[in-house]
Amino acid sequence: MFPIRDHNPSGRTPYVTYALIIANTVIFLGYWSLFSDPRALDAFFERWALFPSHISEGYGYTGILTSMFLHGGFMHLFGNMLFLFIFGDNIEDMLGHLRYLLFYLASGVAAALLQYVADPGSAVPTVGASGAIAGVMGAYLLLFPKARVDILIILIIIFKVLPIPAWLLLAVWFGMQIFSGIGSAGAEGGVAYWAHVGGFVAGLVMIAPVWLARGGPAFWNRTHGVPPHPAANYAIGRTHIPRAGARQNGRKGPWSRH
Fold first, then answer.
1. Which end of the chain is more exposed for a tag (fewer CB within 10 A), N or C?
2. H or E, element range at 205
3. Per-domain residue ranges for the chain?
4. In whole angstroms, what is the distance from residue 73 CA to residue 204 CA?
5. Which CATH number does 11-146+167-238 carry?
6. Burial class (CB in 10 A: 0-12, 13-18, 19+), 91
């Protein structure tokens, strides 16, 4: 179940969302060549990723911020940027460019801090933007719970695009992060689940005053739970996707992604 687009383009150009996507991509391409040199890649992450154990020892604090601009592979980057592209524009439209940027960074910091609290002795580097993006998703859930999001469902050889309300997708996603976080130690399986939870909750908390200032439930009544812009209509029909072989990009490494 993979989201591919929403039905409510923003009312203004989301410059910050685009800039974040470009920044994450450019930074990744800047160290992409290191994936062929494990020692150099480890040294790079040692300097810029989030190491909970380093913070416990009194250093490495810069990783709280810089880790949210690093990724462990092309698909890791692509997935995160797709989520940011889908959900970020409408939140940027509501907050304005500068407040949205501060909101995004604050969500990423909150995500890193909760990941640290969950496993302060971990020596596994944590990288990824999805903690910050989870904050955007939390804000989207509160502001636009009934917005339609198209998801791609893949069942072996069956591909189907299905529109569902945002609250269902986001609630299921959040529940999976909590369930997986409780069932794992730290960043088991290479995923920092508690960073996702921390970012999502931070986004909900920080956007709540904006929602209340617009009337709370009365805001939902006025907007019907969707962004205040004309919805885009996409033709949903039989989906034809050619089969392609999988290709490994980069190497699997001992880092946690989020």
1. N
2. helix 193-213
3. 11-146+167-238
4. 29
5. 1.20.1540.10
6. buried
